Amino acid sequence: MPIDVFLMVLGAALVHATWNALVKTDRDRLALIRVMSFTQLALSVCLVPFVAVPAAESWPYLAASMVLCTGYMLFLNRAYQMADFSLVYPLARGAAPFIVAVVSVGFLGEHLGRASQLAILLMGLGITSLALARGAASLRDWRPVVLALMTGSFIGAYTIVDGLGARAAGSPHGYMIWLSLITALLIVGCVGWLQRGRRTPLSLRSRNAGITAGIMSYGSTWVVIWALTLAPLAMVSALRETGIVFAVIIGVVFLKERVNPARLASIALTLVGTTLLKLSR
């Protein structure tokens, strides 16, 4: 992977973890997600005249990714309602490259060497131990773990779809802007339906956080989709998940969450697996 692509994706991982923290800390997450989507819709409308319409071959991928990205945002919101940022984010993001690797072997016919197989094993152990490292009391409720893993499934799925779609589109920039446009419309519609009859006035803090998170999400996603056209999918996915480290730092330093040694060890194991997967491809 070229060094400029490496550094851009690493920066996108930091930005991604930061906007997730903004979503987690807001009291009205659905309203914030709605503002995020309106912000991204406005950006896309402004930028559409400057990019080419994606090639027809990429439209099935656009349609699939639109649904997957919407599912990701809705499940992410639900997971953040039930558990700490420093649990949900590492679990969801750590599961994504594991899923990408497994699907690429089982369904796309890719071959993995021994180093990649070891990386997948480490990631699987890290994810499993992270789910078990929550303490005896919290083990009675597995819903946060299930929601985080389902969120990770959406991440893994849209990573594969966007990688293939951006390559078929002829331009990653056109693909990104059109994808953001149609996805924002769908998310706004879904959030409006979920909020029906119980919408509350939006605070200035939530509005500002939503606009900021929308811009940050837009930029980080654009970088990753561009990188998916220049490097192998598994490498980009694994590097992007270094955001796990940033998430733990944000959770502990800024959100004052308590992270026990067992959870730190699990996160470290997952990160070692993602790094090994990157280096082995």
Helix-strand layout with pairing:
Layout: H1 3-25, H2 29-47, H3 59-82, H4 85-106, H5 114-132, H6 143-169, H7 172-194, H8 204-228, H9 233-240, H10 243-253, H11 261-280
Helix pairs in contact: 1-8, 1-10, 2-7, 2-8, 3-6, 3-7, 4-5, 4-6, 4-9, 4-10, 4-11, 5-11, 6-7, 7-8, 9-11
- Supply Rg: 18 Å
Q: Count the beta strands.
A: 0
Q: Main β-sheet, in a few words? A: none
The general outline is globular
Helix run count: 11
Helix content: over 70%
Mean pLDDT score, rounded?
A: 82
SSE order in H/E notation? HHHHHHHHHHH
- Taken as a percent bin, the fraction of beta residues is under 5%
Low-confidence stretches: none
SSE-based structural type? mainly alpha
Distance, first to last CA = 10 Å
Task: Please summarize what this structure is.
The protein has 281 residues and is an all-alpha fold. It is built from eleven helices and no strands. The chain has helices at residues 3-25, 29-47, 59-82, 85-106, 114-132, 143-169, 172-194, 204-228, 233-240, 243-253, 261-280.
Features:
281 residues, mainly alpha, 11 helices, 0% strand, globular
